[in-house]
Amino acid sequence: MSTSPTPFPHWMLREIYDQPETLTATLETYLLDGAFHPETTAPIRAWLRAANGEIVIAASGSSRHAGLVAELTLEDLSGFAVDVEYASEYIYRSAKTRSNAAVMVISQSGETADTLHALRKAIADGHPTLAITNVPTSSMAREAGVSFPTAAGRERAIPATKSFTAQLLNLYLLALLAAEVNQTLTPAELSARLAELAALPAQLAAQIPAWQSAVESIAQHYAQAQSFLFLGRGVHYAIAREGALKLKESAYLHAEGYPSGELKHGPNALVSEGTPLVMLATYDPSDPGSVERYEKVLQLLRDMRAQGADILALVNTGDTVAASLATHALFIGPAREALLPLFEVVPLQLLAYSMAIQNNIDVDNPRNLTKAVLAE
Fold this sequence. Notes:
Rossmann fold, 5-stranded parallel beta sheet, 12 strands
């Protein structure tokens, strides 16, 4: 195992570039010949069957943002009812709340104190439990009824990058397994979704260098900004939250993530020359719901442009309309709605990285933070 990020200057940047490889490792673990691997996925299917149609996700930080993506994807694809809790709050919930639900915890380290307490409470209350961690030997992986580990490998930088996208891919596979269990996707549709995943790592790898080049220039433009608002709808809202968190923890800048539709309900008062907007305006043309959300985001872009806002927009490759309404645009290649978060988050990781290093911050070891929060 390498002890240096070479040829990259920092572990965070190396781990951003490692993401296609880690996604490949996940696919090789849980898929076989274009179908679910019968051995590695059998315990997950059993957990889903025991869930009684209800799942509670308990997680913290970036892992909770992955859970927010999973909430919508699981509900849309499988019909499971999903609730996402802060792990630190779940431990205080009544045992009578969703007493028949299965409980899933998500944690990079598998040792996060509040998430581990949430898992132990769920076990004590008799819930079927599943843990998604990046450490197969961790406490959560050992104590949960089912372990569904990611394949990201050791992550040395404190800001989560490759572990986050690995979680997103595990959770998408979970949603497809849930759809198989509930028979909400036809076998042909399920096979098509699994087949398209084979191209995902290469699609991501092809875009990272261009994103890095564009983001380095954009970061210089925002060198004096002290606060950012990140906006997204649907699954993109969770990525707005994650992008804001990355900027906070990496570059020590104030940033907040909001649903796009909430901007005019108060936060718009903050929009000014010194508070740029980061707007997620990608969409899946084959998904009517995605198109509807995009049209609303497009109108918000027009309104904010008229208001004089400085806007960094993530838009579909070739979308000249959305790009023309933004101050800066980052282009995302075509992807299914449920997979767009895997692509969107990477340029936002690069934005946080670039903003940090131009401020001479030790991006691998941000102040006051640790890789695993072992005490509440």
